[in-house]
Inverse folding.
């Protein structure tokens, strides 16, 4: 916070023109913050209000009713999202955490900087590209859209997020702890697994939560790989529904009942993602305080 | 594993050391192989898209980029992607024009003024904009923003700026429905957090001496920022904009819902358009058989990823150069980078 400029009374001797400019500038900064926050408030307000109206037991307990009948739900979408995100977690957590360990514990050479740079730019590939990639690679090869393919597509997005975030939290672990472990005669890998990882525990969890929050809300890559399904599907090799997909489809439908369900699904998505992000953020602030 | 749990001096020295060396080496190699896997994945991604998209480029060549006719109907197939490229570029530019000044303003506010009890919660709130799933932006955009703009902003702008010669054509209002302008506004909201976060990262390393020097010379806060902070941070701020632009180019679902999906290229921003990600999302279902259609979509994806990677690379270099040049505290930078990467 060394960058903060102390608030100084602008002296009276400054010409009124300069003082006015300064005043206008301050107002402009305030205004940009207000403008930035208005959409957030509007979106949350609208989604909560219309979403709550659509939330009921049947949203979770039933699949869709025929078009334009009130009621029904998106049970298959919740189950599908659980399956897809579950697959993505199973694949991407080990990959992401191991990459993070490499970057933080062994990562000083040229290979590490290439990996780090790759992770950084992978963070900015458009999510639909991840979908198109897995569509061309996995869906076409297996001959079917599937929950598995969607899990892999989400891995493309979650792996680099987790790798970078894990690296950062492991770097916060004091070197003295590592040296202590090594001095006790533990081999390096045991020190990493038994000392470094547990110390950074909450931080690694944060990294995972951030990646899951991202994966949970992704629509485009899941659309291109899982396709969607009107019924409950438990076979990971078959087309599967997901909450963002169902919302996307119902938003475009002409039936008020389906549109209402879409708002319900949107609320659930927003809730899931915000809870994960906020919890992750709070955990990481606590962790950083503990480390300092 | 169990043997290593025993105190080291209890086991015979040589086999232990050998076993330990093996364990260390195996672990190191595992993490190395997995990490290199990340690089391999990026290479594979580029190869799969290039390999898949090659056929469309071979068959249509330059026409693919400059042609305006996109027709996937079998027998009459022709692929000119200009409407999508046009829509992508225009929506992203609108997003930049709106998000840059506001994003920089928010970043300056969060770094340069106010006290931390108000700044920290505000920073979290701005970051939360990045966490909202794009389909939620989409549903809100389609049911709230599109009707709102149809009723208010667009008729007003059409009646005022629309009357001005030359640029007036950009603001002709033809009727309700999704349009390029609304898509640009949604994109602006979506990229605001990343622009803000990266700008903060850059601005925060401008040294305190620069600021204090300017203030000591009697500069007002506006003059300090205008003459001291902004010029030094400029390359990094451009980098922030490029990262935002890269985000905007690739955003799919929210744009697909509000842009109206029309392949006509029109002058007015209030008319419907189409973007590259939207056409991929809308047409991949019909393109499952290995044909030119699939190839065309994959080539569009390749185009998208190349632009996005180029933007991200240049942006990263600009930001890094700025922060290095200013000799900012490395640990603080890394931390700033984490918050940027983590939330956005």
């Amino acid at each position: 916070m060394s960058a903060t400029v102390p608030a100084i009374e602008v002296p009276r001797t400054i010409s009124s023109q300069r003082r006015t400019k300064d005043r206008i500038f301050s107002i402009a900064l305030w205004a940009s913050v207000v403008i930035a926050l208005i959409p957030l408030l509007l979106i949350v307000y609208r989604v909560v209000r219309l979403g709550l109206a659509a939330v009921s037991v049947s949203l979770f307990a039933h699949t869709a009713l025929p078009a334009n009948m009130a009621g029904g739900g998106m049970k298959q979408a919740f189950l599908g999202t659980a399956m897809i995100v579950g697959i993505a977690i199973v694949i991407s957590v080990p990959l992401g955490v191991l990459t993070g360990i490499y970057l933080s514990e062994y990562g000083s050479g040229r290979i590490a900087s290439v990996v780090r740079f790759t992770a950084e730019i992978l963070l900015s590939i458009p999510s639909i590209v991840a979908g198109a990639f897995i569509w061309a690679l996995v869906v076409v090869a297996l001959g079917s859209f599937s929950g598995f393919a969607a899990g892999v597509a989400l891995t493309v997005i979650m792996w680099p997020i987790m790798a970078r975030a894990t690296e950062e939290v492991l770097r916060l672990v004091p070197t003295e702890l590592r040296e202590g472990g090594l001095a006790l005669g533990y081999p390096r890998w045991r020190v990493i697994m038994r000392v470094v990882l547990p110390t950074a525990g909450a931080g690694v969890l944060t990294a995972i939560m951030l990646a899951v929050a991202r994966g949970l809300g992704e629509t485009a890559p899941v659309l291109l790989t899982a396709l969607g399904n009107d019924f409950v599907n438990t076979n990971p090799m078959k087309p599967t529904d997901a909450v963002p997909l169902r919302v996307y489809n119902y938003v475009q439908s002409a039936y008020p009942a389906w549109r209402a369900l879409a708002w319900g699904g949107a609320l659930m998505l927003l809730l899931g993602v915000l809870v994960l992000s906020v919890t992750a953020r709070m955990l990481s602030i606590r962790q950083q305080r503990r480390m300092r | 594993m169990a043997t290593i749990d025993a105190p080291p001096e209890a086991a015979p020295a040589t086999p232990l050391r050998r076993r330990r060396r093996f364990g260390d080496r195996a672990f190191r190699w595992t993490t190395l192989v997995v990490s290199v896997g990340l690089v391999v994945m990026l290479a594979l991604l580029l190869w799969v898209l290039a390999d898949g998209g090659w056929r469309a480029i071979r068959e249509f060549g330059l026409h693919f980029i400059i042609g305006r006719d996109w027709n996937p109907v079998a027998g009459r197939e022709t692929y000119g992607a200009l409407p999508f490229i046009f829509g992508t570029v225009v929506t992203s530019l609108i997003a930049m024009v709106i998000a840059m000044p506001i994003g920089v303003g928010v970043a300056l506010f969060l770094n340069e003024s106010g006290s931390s009890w108000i700044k920290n919660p505000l920073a979290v709130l701005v970051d939360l904009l990045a966490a909202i799933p794009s389909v939620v932006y989409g549903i809100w955009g389609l049911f709230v923003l599109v009707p709102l703009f149809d009723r208010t902003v667009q008729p007003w702008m059409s009646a005022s700026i629309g009357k001005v010669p030359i640029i007036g054509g950009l603001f002709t209002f033809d009727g309700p429905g999704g349009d390029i302008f609304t898509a640009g506004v949604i994109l602006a909201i979506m990229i605001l957090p990343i622009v803000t976060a990266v700008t903060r990262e850059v601005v925060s390393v401008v040294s305190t001496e620069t600021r204090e020097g300017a203030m000591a010379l009697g500069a007002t806060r506006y003059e300090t920022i205008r003459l001291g902070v902004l010029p030094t941070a400029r390359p990094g701020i451009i980098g922030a904009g490029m990262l935002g632009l890269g985000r905007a180019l690739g955003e799919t679902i929210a744009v697909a819902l509000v842009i109206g999906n029309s392949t006509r290229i029109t002058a007015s921003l209030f008319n419907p358009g189409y973007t590259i990600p939207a056409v991929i999302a809308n047409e991949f279902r019909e393109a499952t058989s290995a044909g030119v259609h699939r190839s065309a979509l994959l080539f569009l994806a390749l185009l998208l990823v190349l632009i996005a990677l180029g933007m991200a690379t240049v942006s990263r270099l600009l930001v890094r150069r700025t922060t290095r040049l200013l000799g900012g505290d490395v640990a603080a930078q890394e931390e700033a980078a984490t918050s940027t990467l983590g939330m956005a």
User: Anything to note?
Assistant: Residues 16 and 61 of chain A are 67 Å apart (CA to CA).
